[in-house]
Amino acid sequence: MKNILYIENKRLIKQPLTYILLSLIIGLIVMTADLSTKQYDFRKYSFDTLMNQYVTDVNKYSLDRVLKEGTEVLSSELYKDDILHIASRLSFNGAGDINDKRIEKIKEELNDFAVNYDEDTVNDITDGLKDTKIDLTYSEGFKAILNSFSLFSRVLFLFIAIYTINIFAVSKESEVQLYNSTLHGGRQLFCSKTLLALSYGISFYVVGTVIYLLIYILIYGSDGFDSFIFSDPSMALSIYKYTYIEAMLNFVIIALLCIVTIVLAIAILSGITKDFSQLLTIIVVYFSFLILMDQMGNIYVNHFVWNFLIYKMSDFTYHLRQYHVYNIFGRNFKGIDLMIIIGVLKNLILLIVWRLKGG
C-alpha cells in the first residue's frame, strides 16, 4: 500500500490542478480581506486613522464610562457606532445595569423564538450567561474574520470537493488494471485514494486558514482575540460564551468534520461511478439543493435538519446569533455543540459504509 500511496501522491503533485487550487485559495483570501475593508467610510479618514482612533478611545473610555458621560466624549465614529448599536439591540436607555439588561433581552428572545422552549430550558441557558460581561475592546480584525469565514469555508469546500473527485475519477486505465489484477490491489488503491483525499483536503483547509488569519492580522492587528464575541454588536445577544479565538477553534473543528464528510461521501459515490462529470454533477446538484433550501429560511427545518448538513453547518455567524437549543435526555445542548457531536457520528456512519464499499 505504501507503493500505491507514493505513486498516487507523486501523480497529484505533478498535476496542474494542485497548484491552480492553491492559487485560487490565496485569491479567495485576498478577495475576502479586501471586501472586509470596504465596509468603512473613508471620506473623512484613512483606514489606519479609523483603527487608531478606535484603539485610542477604547483604551481611554470604557463602556461603563461612556454610558455615564455620553458618546460626545469619543472621537472614534466606529466606537461610537458600536456602543449605540449595542444599546439599540438591548433596548438600553441608560437605566440599570447593561449586563442585566442583556440577560433579560436574551430571555425574551428565547421565549419568542420560533421553536418553543420550556421555562427550565430558558433559565438554564440564561443562568449560564450571568457571569459574562459586555466589555468593548478593539477587535475589528476578529469581527471581520468571523463575518467572512463562512464564505471562505464554503468556497473552499467546493474546491476540495472538486479536487477529491479528481483523485477518485482520474487515473491511468493501465494502472487501475494493474492494481485490480493483484491480491487486494483494488482495495489498496481505494484506501490510498481516500487517505490522500483526506490528507490533501485537510491540508488545503488548514494552510488556507492559517494564511487567511495572517492576512487579516496584518491588516487589522491581533488585538481582541481573547475578547468575548459580545464586543461585536451583531452578537451582543449571543447565547455563546466564546471569545473570538474559541469561536474560531469551534468553527475550524466543524469545517474539518465537513471536509471528512465530503471526502467519504465522494469515495462512496466513486464505487457507483468514476466518471468525473457525473460525480461533479452529483455534488453540484447536492450543494445547489442545500443552497436553495437555505434561501427558504424555515426555522423549523433548519432546527431539525439543515443545521446538521454541510452548508448550514458552515454558516458560522448564523449559529452564533440564533437560538437553536436541543434538549436530549434532559440535557440542553446549544446548536454548535450538538453539530460537532452529530458531525462525528455522521462521519462514523460514513466510515462504516466506506469500509463495506471496499475500504
Describe this structure in words.
There is one protein chain. The chain has 359 residues and is an all-alpha fold. The protein contains 16 helices and two strands. It has a two-stranded antiparallel sheet. The longest helix is centred in the middle third of the chain and has 36 residues, at 185-220. The chain is globular. It starts with a helix and ends with a helix.
How would a crystallographer describe the biggest sheet? 2 strands, antiparallel
* Shape field: globular
Which strands sit side by side, in order, in the main sheet? 1-2
* SS content category: mainly alpha
Indicate the low-confidence ranges by residue numbers: none
Distance N terminus to C terminus? 12 Å
Provide the succession of SSEs. Answer: HHHHHHHHHHHHHHHEEH
**Fraction of residues in H or I helices:** over 70%
Radius of gyration: 24 Å
